[in-house]
Structures are given as structure tokens and as C-alpha cells.
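Team,

Forwarding the record for the chain on the shared tracking sheet. I've put the sequence and predicted structure together so nobody has to dig through attachments.
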Amino acid sequence: MKHYLFIFLFSFITTFAFSQDKTEKTTAETTVKKVTDSTAVKAESTVKGIIIDATSKQPLENVNIVNLNQVIGTATNAKGEFELRAKANDTLHLSYLGFKSIKVKVTNDWVDKIEKSTITLTELALALEEVVVTGLKLTGYLEVDVKQVNINTNYRYSISGLSNGYEAGKRQPSAVTKVLGSIFNPLDFLYNTFSKKGKELRKLKKMKEDDNIRNTLAARFDREMLTALLGVNKIDLDEIVSQCNYSEEFVTTANDLQILDAISECYEEYKVLNRSRKKRI
């Protein structure tokens, strides 16, 4: 009888221990899964909002929203709604033609909030400057009249064996000298331009990879979004492009995407030259 009682107790204890171990493993796996899922949700946290006109209270379509920290962008739909990946303390840059651009700080209570937060934009009072139109004395003959029109042409010079071109403005005696100076001493102006702005300019690659940002920049000429993304003012931005051997006319007429591509190309050249310089040292 004692023998059977011993076998029964041994079987009971073994079964209980196995069940407990299985329960602990299941609990541990569940905990790990919850932590993993929580981390995934946190990594993909978003903010939602509706952008309206401060005066009419009507929704604004195609407002450009850019996360300056993560360098990603989006635009509002026909209802003025948007959703963008962001985390607490990120800064969003909101811009819309004819309205004052603003920066909005992402707060903890806004992240992953179900309800959409309402943001208002204020319309700018635009004053048109006086435009002076100089009349041309046209004769009606194309060959004669076309000579009265000023044509501004910029030239980009290239040398066999070098991948990059150099824009020196109009055809003039100093143009070639300017190009040669940049070729034989390229690191000086690049280093002075980029060495103090490396942190901001590393965003260039991300900006070029985001289709929303590229499409937005292609339609803009105000440099506002570029200066916000790169953390520089408009004067510094124009100076950077000028130092990269782009003409004054290019600086004033290019759209924001062309400016971005110009700076990006110049910055990539700087990084290559800077690495070579460090190796020599």
C-alpha cells in the first residue's frame, strides 16, 4: 500500500512541476511578445491632425507637413487631415502658399492620440510690388525684334576626367579663372562651408529619398522649407550654393529641389575630398 502511495505522490509532484514550468514559460513568452509589440508600436508612433484656415475655419488641402527631426513629410487631404510618423519632442514644419508657416512641437499626449488635433494657419497679407515694364520698339520682323531681347546664358565648364561641372555664369574672361581656382584648390571653400554645418547637412540624403519632400521642393522657390530642414538661414543657404560654383542667376531662379540637388552634390564632393585630406595628414 505504501508502495502505491509513493508512486501516486511522485506522479503528482512531477505533473505539478511540469505544469508550473510550462506556465512560467508561457508567461515569459507573453511578456516578451508584449515588450516587442510595445517597442514596435513606439517605433511607429504617429500624430494626427486637421489644419484649418484661422479666419474661415475651413480645412486646407495640400498643406505641407515635414518632420524636421526624422526628415519625412506628408500633405493634408481634401478634408485638411494628415497623419505623420513622429515621436515626442519632434518638430513639425507646416507651410502653405499664402499662409504664415509655423513650427509645432510634438507632445507626449499628442503621440498616438485617436482624436485629430486641430491646427490653424494664418493667411499672409501680400502686397504686390510695382512692376515696371519697359516697352520694346518692335518692328514686326522677327530677325530684327529678337535682337532686342536680352538673353542671359550661364555656362557650366567641365574638364575631361572630372565628373563634376562648374558653373561660372556668363561667358567672360574671369569665368575660366574661377573654374580653375575651384578645381586646383577645391577643399578650402568646401571645408569652410560645410565643416560647421555637417550635422544639418547630413539630412540631405534623407531629404532626397523622401518623395513627398522632393515633390514639395520641386514646386517651391522660397527656400523656406530648405532653411527649416537644414537649420540655416536664407543668406547662408545662398552662400553655400554660390561657394559651390553656381552662378548668381542659378541661385535666384532655381527651384528648391534644384538647390537641394546642387548642395547635395557639392557636399558629397566635400566628403570625398575631406577623407583624402585626412589620409594625407
